[in-house]
Design a protein that fits this description.
By secondary structure, the protein is α+β, with helices and mostly antiparallel strands. The protein has seven helices and twelve strands. The protein has three domains: 120 residues, Cupredoxins -  blue copper proteins (Immunoglobulin-like, Sandwich), CATH 2.60.40; 69 residues; 116 residues, Immunoglobulin-like. The strands form three sheets. A five-stranded mixed β-sheet has the order 3-2-1-5-8. A hairpin with an 8-residue loop joins strand 2 and strand 3. The longest helix has 33 residues. It binds heme C and copper (II) ion. Heme C binds next to helix 6 and helix 7.
Amino acid sequence: MTRAQRRWAAASATLGMCAAVACGPMNTLGRDGVTGSSETSLGWFLVITSCAVTVIITVLVCVAALRKHRGAGARDVVAGSPGFEWILWGGMLVPAVVLVIAFLLTIGTLNAVAAPERAPAATIQVVGHQWWWEVRYEGSSPDQSVVTANEIHVPVGEPVRLELSTGDVIHSFWVPELAGKTDLIPGQTNTMWIEARHAGVFGGTCGEFCGAQHAHMQMRVIADPPGKYRAWLAAQRTPAAAAVDPSASDGLRVFMTSGCANCHTIRGTGAGGGVGPDLTHIASRTTIAAGTLPNTEANLMGWIVGAQGIKPGSDMPNMPVPSRDLQTLAAYLETLK
Ligand code: HEC
Ligand SMILES: [Cu+2]
């Protein structure tokens, strides 16, 4: 990498991080999701109860410590003696009642999040990779399937089933405003479901340390009205826009001759690599590299030549594309709506 390119990469990485931080709240106490909301209520109950218990016990200990001793020495506490009622109520009955209530509420919450009340409107497969999210919408036939990355579109107000698996190590799917975490574990498929109550963009991140770029493994759930969601899905099903005008076909040529196709798929072209994200509709995503950078032509150029400066250790090498070709390539990728 030349010095200028390195500066480019560093500058765009810094900007991208600021944008990622500002990308929308990841509020654990948010109640925008149906499962997240019952978990939040249980959380509040437990926090308030444990605070109350701590305060009451602290006061009692202080009162006991400050009280003057009466009588001599310790006595056995037996039924009828002065301390007996405290032990019976404070030590056994009240804690038992509190724990039984917490137990019942926990069972209720587990039941509420176990399965949605209605059949899910969609099943989405999410595959964790170091350090990005592969997102698949299986269709009735392979050409009806959609593969994208890091941004999960769902219909608002409808339950959506997620099937979580991993291509390498343990990751954890966490969109705090919609639901609690579920791990992605090698050799098995875990399922969960989410339902967004409001349209909007919900920030998420990997919730299980998975290597150097764990913090750059972010995602977004985009909840749209059902009509808009279906239009998005239909658009994603189509192959990439044909590279008809000369600059686009030049961009595709650079893509095919620079080694990109070994790792990336662009449906409708000869590129069928399966190491990195599917780029068929890369221009329809708001960020690149799992929430690390806003999706702009400049950031694409910075990423292509300097991925290792932005996400060191990533499976995407720095690609030494000459600067004229780089511009053409990035411009072509930005046409892939
Ligand atoms: C050896 C495999 C490999 C090669 C070669 C490669 N990439 Fe990548 N690429 C990846 C991986 C892996 C990622 C995901 C990185 C991440 O987010 O951690 C990625 C990410 C990207 C992204 C961001 C996609 C998204 O949705 O976030 C773009 C754009 C991209 N590559 C373009 C290119 C171009 C253009 C070339 C050729 C000049 C290229 N790549 C060559 C593996 C590769
Ligand atoms: Cu991770």
